[in-house]
Amino acid sequence: MLREVERFCREHGVIRSGEGIVVACSGGADSMALVQWLMEHRQQWELRLCIAHFEHGIRGEESLQDAAFVEKWCMEHHLMFRRGSAKIPELAAKTGASLELAAREQRYGFLEGLRQELGYDVIATAHHADDQAETVLMRLLRGSGIDGLAAMLPRTGCIARPFLSVRKRELEAFCAARGIASRYDATNGMPDCTRNRLRLELIPRLQKEYNPNLVESLCHLARLASEQREYMEGEVSGILPAAVRRGGKELSQKVFCEQPPALQRTMLRRFLQEGEAGCRDLGFQHFESLREFLLHRGTGSHMELPRGWKAELSYGWLRLCRQQETEDVPLPERRITVPGRTLLQEYGISIEAAFLSEKPVHTGPEEFYCDYGKLPGELVVRPRRAGDVISLSAGRKSLKKLFIDSHVPREERNRIPVLVSSDLVLWVPGLRRSVLCPVDEDTGKILYLRVMKEEVRGHDEG
Fold first, then answer.
1. Which of 33, 204, 290, 306 is deepest in the core (most CB within 10 A)?
2. Are 325 and 415 in contact (CB under 8 A)?
C-alpha cells in the first residue's frame, strides 16, 4: 500500500515538499491511517502537520469520546491538535438541510478556517477508492455528465486526497500492522442516507450479482472522465478569452455556436463558474435549456433562471443578470465645467474641456469639438430622453434608432451619457457627433472635449 500511495502522490502532486497540512481526522481507521502515513513522511518531505477533529454533536457521548481519543493520540505522538464543534442537529433543523449536508459544511468551514489561521497550504482528507466508487455511482444514478463522473480529484484547490487509489481494507490492514487503534462511527452502518444505502446495500449486491470488481471499475471510470475533462478544459482555455467580454460577464453567441456540443457544455460551465456566482450550480435541465437558448434564439430574447437570475441575448452576446438589474435607474444631469475637468462618476467617465486656437486635425470617437460661440446654452450631460434626436450630415436620427444601429444592448441605453446644450443633442460619446455648432472661418473659440474612463465606486467605498 505504501508504495502505491507514494506513486499516486508523486504522479498527481497530491502532497508537496515543505507544505503545511491540516489533517482531517475523525478517529476512524481511514483517518488514523492518514495521520500515521503523513507522520512517517513528515521528515522526508519536510511537512508541518496539524491534526484537526470536528465534533458534530450527533452521537452524544460517543462523539465526545471520539474527540478525546484523537486528542490523546496526538498528545502521545507530540502532534499539534485542534478541535472544532457544532450542534449539527440544531443547525440542520434551523436551515432545513440534511444532517449530512449540514455536518459537511460545518466541518469544511472549520478546516478551512484553521488552514488560513495557521497559514498552511492544504487540507488532507482520508477519502479512498471505496469512497470514490460510491461517489461515482451516486452521481451516475443522478444523471451526471463527464464533470460529475470525474468525482473526487487527487488534489482540488486546497483539498488533498492521498488515498484515492487504495481500498478501505488496505487502510485497515495498515492500521492493524502498526497497532494503531481507531474509533467506529455506528452511524456509518445505518442505511439512513443515500451514500450509506449505496455502500451497505447496492454496491454489495452489484458486486455479488454482476461485477466483483465494481469498485475498481467505477474508479477507472472516474479516472477516464477526469482525463477527458482535463482535455476539454484545456481546449476551452484557448477559446474562452476571445469568447467573453466585459470582464467575463458576457459570452459570444457566435463563438459558442461554432463549437461542438461537448465544448459548448464545457465553455458554458466555465462561463457560469467564472462569472455570476448565483448561476454556478444550475441543474441539468436549466443548463441544457440555456445551451439551447444560445443556439436558437436571437437579440431581445430572454429566459428566467433559478434564484432570481435572468439570461438575455443582445446583438450576439449572452448576459446574465439579476431580474431587478434590468429595471431602469435614472442617472442625474451634470453641468460640464468649461474649461476644466468634470467627474461624472455615475456614468463611469470624466470629461476634460479646453479651448483650442486651431481646429484639431484628427479626433477619435472619445473626442469632440465645436464653435463655442454658437452653443445655445450651457453644456450638460444627461441620459437619453424620449424624442431625443441627433443632427447628422445625412439628416436627423432618433437616439433610439442610433442605439439600435450601433448594437447597444437595450439594458445599457439609459446609462449612456448624452451631451446636450439647451436640450439639443451635440454628442453621444463613443458613437456619433452632431453637425451642430460647426467650426468655420468666423469661429472665435474652439471648444475641445475629451472623455476618459473612470473607476465606478459603490456608495460604501471611500
1. 33
2. no
Q: In what order do the strands lie in the sheet with 367-371?
A: 340-344, 349-356, 446-453, 367-371
Range of the domain at 252: 243-326
Last residue of a domain, one of 193, 225, 257: 225
Do 432 and 386 lie in one domain? The reply is yes
Number of other residues whose CB lies within 10 A of the CB of residue 46 = 11
CB 4 within 8 A of CB 174: no
pLDDT value, residue 462 = 37
**CB 317, CB 251: distance < 8 Å:** yes
Parallel, antiparallel, or unpaired for β 20-24 and 432-433?
unpaired
CA angle 187, 192, 198 (to 5 degrees): 95
Q: How many domains does the chain have?
A: 3
Residue 449: CB partners within 8 Å, gap ≥ 6?
336, 351, 352, 353, 367, 368, 369, 419, 427
Q: What is the CATH number of the domain that holds 176?
A: 3.40.50.620
* Nearest to 447, CA basis, from 376, 344, 381, 373: 373
Mean pLDDT of the chain: 89
Phi, then psi, of 258 in degrees rounded to 5: -75, -10
Query: 74 and 37: one domain?
Result: yes
Which cell is 438 given?
460647426
Q: For residue 313, what is the domain's CATH number?
A: 1.20.59.20
> Which cell goes with 88?
449539527
Q: pLDDT (tens digit, 9 = 90+) per residue, 440-462?
A: 999 999 999 999 886 544 433 33
Q: Rounded to an integer, what distance in angstroms lies between the CA atom of residue 126 and that of residue 30?
A: 6
pLDDT, one tens digit per residue, over 45-93 is 999 999 999 998 888 888 899 999 999 999 999 999 999 998 888 888 8
The beta strand positions in 229-283, using DSSP E, are 244-245, 250-252
What is the DSSP secondary structure assignment for residue 258, as one 8-state letter?
A: T
Give yes or no for a contact between 98 and 193, defined as CB atoms under 8 angstroms apart: yes
Tell me how far CA of residue 202 lies from CA of 1, 94, 242, 356, in angstroms.
27, 32, 46, 83
Cell of 7: 506513486
Domain C-terminal end among 326, 355, 382? 326
Residue 316 sits at φ, ψ, to 5 deg, of 85, 10
Residue 422, domain member (yes or no): yes
DSSP string across 42-79: HHHHT-EEEEEEEE-SSSTHHHHHHHHHHHHHHHHTT-
Examine the domain organization and report whether 285 and 161 are in the same domain: no
Main-chain phi, psi angles of 352, to 5 degrees: -100, 130
Interatomic CA distance for residues 54 and 206, integer angstroms: 34
- 408 and 445 together in one domain: yes
